[in-house]
Design a protein that fits this description.
Helix content: over 70%
Shape: elongated
Order of helices and strands: HHHH
Strand content: under 5%
Radius of gyration: 18 Å
Largest sheet: none
Structural class: mainly alpha
Distance between the termini: 25 Å
Number of strands: 0
Length: 140
């Protein structure tokens, strides 16, 4: 897939999501309330997904740093390093999205704490993946 096509798909998906979310956000009965301790809100789910992707990026980057040029695998060589960078960036994107759209502070059930964790773990995964990418290109 070319970069232009990827950017067009992302822009289209963003505009469709924005178009579908605007009427729902304008309706007063749809406004979120504080979630209970045991319920899973959309913010918590997205933040946990972002943290999981960031953690996957850290693990893949760690493995790519341990074996920069090995047999073919998901965490070896430049493919593993690039996958770690992508997972870290997507995790940071999810964390940033939840942090930007959370209505309350920490403890309100909007996933703000998980968003901060996703941002930090995603940043770590991206940084380690970048180091692994540099090392894998130097050895290959």
């Amino acid at each position: 897939m070319s970069v232009r096509r990827l950017l067009a798909v992302v822009a289209t998906a963003f505009s469709v999501c924005l178009g579908l979310a605007a009427p729902a956000a304008a309706h007063a009965s749809v406004q979120p309330v504080a979630a209970s301790v045991y319920s899973i809100s959309l913010g918590r789910l997205v933040a946990a997904t972002g943290a999981g992707l960031g953690l996957a990026g850290v693990v893949i980057a760690w493995r790519a740093l341990a074996r920069p040029a090995g047999r073919l695998g998901a965490s070896n060589g430049p493919f593993g390093a690039a996958a770690a960078v992508v997972a870290g960036v997507v995790g940071m994107t999810f964390g940033g999205l939840v942090a930007a759209t959370a209505d309350g502070g920490l403890g309100t059930g909007n996933g703000l704490g998980g968003a901060y964790v996703a941002l930090l773990v995603g940043l770590l995964g991206t940084a380690l993946g970048g180091v692994a990418l540099i090392r894998s290109r130097r050895t290959a």
